[in-house]
Amino acid sequence: MYKVMIVDDEILVRIGLRSMIDWEGLGFQIVGEAGNGEAAYEKCLVLRPDVLITDIKMPQKDGFWLIEKVRELNPQIEVIVLTAYDEFEYVRKVMKLQVSDYILKAEMEEKEIEDILLAKKQNLDRRQQGNAENTEDNAEEKRQEQEEELLLGLLLNDYKPLELVKEKFEKMGIPWNQDSYCFLQLDFSSSMPKEYFAMEKTSGLLFACKQLISHRLQEKYRICLSKQFGMSITCFLLSKNISEKQLLSELQDIHEAIRQYFNISFQSASSRIETTLEEIRGQGAWIYRAADVLFSVEEGGHITQEKEENTVRECERMTVYSEAEVLEITECLLNGDTKGWQEAVKEIKERCRRYLFSSMNLKLLMVQLANTLLKNCQTGETDHDERLLAYQKDMIEAVNLHALFQDLSGYIECVQEILQESSLGNVELLLRKAETYVDKNYKNRIVVDDVASYLGISPYYFSNLFRKFRNIKFTSYLNQVRIEHAQKLLRDPRITVSQVYEETGFNDQSYFSKTFKKYTGMTVTEYKEKNIAARE
After folding, report:
1. Given Cys at both, which of 61, 204, 273, 352 links 65, Cβ 3.0 to 4.6 Å?
2. 233-268 per-position pLDDT tens digit
3. pLDDT for 102-117, tens place per residue?
4. CATH number for position 179
5. Is the pTM of this model over 0.85?
6. What secondary structure does DSSP assign to 236-278, as a single string?
7. Each residue of 34-45: pLDDT tens digit?
8. Nearest to residue 183, comparing CAs of 212, 153, 161, 138?
9. Are 288 and 183 in contact (CB under 8 A)?
């Protein structure tokens, strides 16, 4: 199948051409359309059509401009011009571009178009005989690309001698230390559709993006070297004057074009603009670091070296999340307060975006947070839940901050569901077991952790359940039980106060006295005397 591109600012003309011809039956495939010359050329860079069917009068860049540009790209491309009755003057100009075939829009007939296409197909078939020459041209183009990528690698690696870089510059005819220089890093990993990972189409899509980016930047800068590294594209720009404002504007234009043509996005970072190669080579290490912190930059966002370095200095004084925040999320989980824990997680996420923490550190810290929450909310049924393990795996493999926190939120929601499911039938049984444990062990030292361990659940989960279903804190309940036993003992005149507090689990007489008065309204002595008087 030979590839065809249709270019016309009238959508009805494009629809008409698509529908009236059996393209595949003739050996052709329509690979793209466009409404103006500039958009068409950028698509040609990626799609490499064999046949171009184009209008002449179009907004932005017209057909003349487009034909000249695609001929530079592919001198052997077959061109068919669409025209109207009043455009014969244009036709004469087109003929100067060695285009002999044109179609009157008002009189488009299937037979006429098919005849023209079959003639074009014969030309293309004959041209296939010259594959050997094409192979040599492609080899030269590939060699040039490899030279540029080698130079970019030398620029990024400041361990290589500067003289080696200078030698490469001179060999490629590039001026030495007479311009401004800048590195760009564009990362596509966060917005690449998952089906491209699964179907291994990433390389082709990124190559198309690289072609478009190089084309756009080469129009503005004297030199633009670019190379794909994994899911990123690194560029080196050279020009007389490079300004940050101009660079941001061009990146925005590129971003819009890539979204329009490929429906994907990217995050970007730019180094300082330097005036010597010695200085710009020192930014190579930063470009590698930028590839990591772009993990936290929002889709379509951009960071500069200065902003990132200032953020790193602030980041050194910050923690990703505090112990208080972990306890807050735990409490919200145990109380079924979904909005509460979502707000707390959102706060942590915004802090991560603001301070650009390292991506791997963030992933490990979020997995640690998830494990801590699970431990705090342990019900005895969550330990080996496959859903939780899957969320943790996704957190480690997250491609950006948004995906990481989506997985974290999914994990917390899963824990919340398990808590709700487990609490329906087991709460009363658990609390009765806890109360029995207290009745048997109140004389000994008891803390919340001891009872929770006996029940096989987390201290946070147990404390929350007890307070929620008994309307009293566990420590208050424990003191209440101990004071009730103390009252019974104090009714025996032979027992001293020191014996009472030791027998009821209090390890401090002063604390026992204060607690006794709090629960009974009397001091220990008053209570003892009152009971003696009552017996007499």
Report:
1. 61
2. 999 998 888 888 999 999 999 998 888 777 788 999
3. 777 777 788 888 888 9
4. 3.30.70.270
5. no
6. EEEES---HHHHHHHHHHHHHHHHHHHS---EEEE---BSSHH
7. 989 988 988 888
8. 153
9. no
Q: Is 139 a member of any domain?
A: no
Same domain, 249 and 126: no
Cβ atoms of residues 212 and 257 within 8 Å: yes
Distance CA 52, CA 44 (A): 9
Q: Is 335 found in the same domain as 247?
A: no
CB 32 within 8 A of CB 47: yes
Structure tokens at 517: 């008065």
Residue ranges of the chain with per-residue pLDDT less than 50: 132, 198-200, 381-383, 424
Query: Whole domain around residue 469: which residue ranges?
Result: 428-535
As for how many domains the chain has, the answer is: 4
Q: What span, in angstroms and rounded, lies between the C-alpha atoms of 515 and 521?
A: 10
Q: Residue 465's domain is classified under what CATH number?
A: 1.10.10.60
Quick one: 441 and 516 in the same domain? yes
Within a domain: residue 407? Answer: yes
Pair (417, 444) in one structural domain: no
Residue 443 is encoded by which pair of tokens?
């004389």
